[in-house]
Design brief:
Layout (H helix, E strand, L loop, with lengths): L1 H15 L9 E10 L2 E3 L6 E6 L3 E7 L6 E11 L2 E9 L9 E9 L2 E7 L5 E8 L2
Antiparallel strand pairs: 1-2, 1-3, 1-9, 3-4, 4-5, 5-6, 6-7, 7-8, 8-9
Protein name: Lipocalin-like domain-containing protein
Organism: Mucilaginibacter sabulilitoris
Keywords: Signal
């Protein structure tokens, strides 16, 4: 009976630390990841940031001494362990415009991982760190 109580208390304690992740609210900065299984490092010449609200995201390029540049916007929805993103604006020609991409997502501490196979066949795992 003591073991059963210990297991129950452990589960209760773990549940107390679970964060309700119904949105990705905040500002996230790209820190690298994997592209087709190979390391993809973040640039040192500029920063890539995404700002999420309840349903939308805006992606920026930030270069020192320059005004932040919006290169992409879109809508997103979280459902279980999936993030569905639909690009609604891109500053360059894009084959993803208006298409929904399903990412597996994981938030651990201050890191967001987005993992998917894109429509062009590329496998990506992007790592973003929350900065705001």
């Amino acid at each position: 009976m003591k073991k059963l109580r210990l297991v129950f208390l452990s589960i209760v304690c773990l549940c107390a630390f679970t964060i309700d992740q119904s949105s990705l609210n905040g500002t996230w900065e790209y820190r690298g990841g994997l592209l087709n299984g190979k390391m993809d490092t973040a640039s040192t010449a500029y920063k890539l940031q995404r700002t999420y609200d309840e349903q939308h995201y805006e992606a920026l390029v930030i270069e020192k001494g320059e005004k932040p540049f919006i290169y992409e916007k879109g809508d997103y929805k979280l459902q279980a362990d999936s993030c569905f993103e639909t690009q609604t604006y891109c500053s360059q020609p894009s084959k993803l415009l208006g298409k929904t991409v399903k990412y597996a997502y994981l938030v651990s501490n201050d890191t967001l991982k987005l993992i998917a196979t894109l429509p062009n066949g590329n496998r990506v795992e992007d790592h973003w760190v929350k900065v705001k």
